Amino acid sequence: MGGVPAQGVRLHRPGVTELRLSAFGPHRGAAFALGPVTLFAGPSGSGKSQALAAYEALAALGSGATLDEAFPDAAARIPDLAVPDADRRRGFRIGCTVDGPAGLVRLDLAVQAEPALRIVGERLSQPGQILLATALRDPGRRSVQGAWLTGGAIGVTRAPLPDDRLGTALLPLRVAGATAGQRQVLAAAEQVVVALRSVFPCDPRPGRMRAPVPPGEGRLLGDCANLADVLRRTRHECGTRYALLAEAARTGCAGPVAGLDVRAPADGPVTAVLDRGADRPATELARLGSGELRFLALALVLLTGPGVLAMDPAAELLAAQQALTVLADGFDRGLDRNQSTELLRLALLSCGRGHVRLVAAVGEETAAAARLLAGVTVVDL
User: Fold this and answer.
1) How many CB atoms within 10 Å of residue 142?
2) Residue 268 banded pLDDT, cuts 50, 70, 90
3) Which pTM does this prediction carry?
């Protein structure tokens, strides 16, 4: 499980191909290979949610978040039965491998959670070579000592870096790119940052999706509360995706479905409805079951792109050079078998094109069905 893509082909768009939980919650020495569609399965308490939380935290750090923003519950991530050292320090270690044009790049992070939250070590590397290494030298100072490859006569550049931010994400601001070594460091760091910034954590909350919403930018929130407004935008801007979503609704929603529609008065809120056909009144989404609402929201996420999601992808790269990764804990929560099967079909359809990747936690019924599908990686915990 060394992080090589399942197809054995170099990724043109940066993507995380391995998640490492060296010491995190219930996980010790764990390394999980990630494919275009990866589902974590296992009994309650096996660590599915912890694995996705680690990925989400890495994504937040790659996007510039501080350590306390990425780990608001850091103490809960300390490995089970971890014993503090003589200075009462405890923490956790996580990492990932990102594949892309620069080759395989590893990022490993050691975090002290107690008595104070801080990064105590970070390593960015490629096979056989360390590109960046940081270490906590003086516990009394809020910085770590960083050293990154420079090449040429200097060899290595040393400088302090903040102990509450990912050093890899800061390198593009600190490295000039004047030598071959610096350019190698920049290429590796930028590949990791692009992959981590292209992550959209999604957990649709039906209770927040039922009410009409004011018109806005049409960028879907992580809880999908503004689903109606995003449907309004999608209908006008991308007829093909809208048609695919309406087709999916015929499988995932009860009763006849002729299509999806929105009611958007010029001076009023936006309401989404299911078109039941010429002889039947439309059904407002507020009247749908929780499973139907979650299904529609997840289907929309899988069929859309970063421009329609409330996220901040790497603006310096074209969308065609980035792959959106959807993180979904409880992906099949509240869904029936038909809905889960249809979402897996949509995931394989979208992820097969290379523009979208899915990492999700699922129940055993969905995992059993997924094990029979080519192109799905099921991680059994």
Assistant:
1) 12
2) confident
3) 0.91
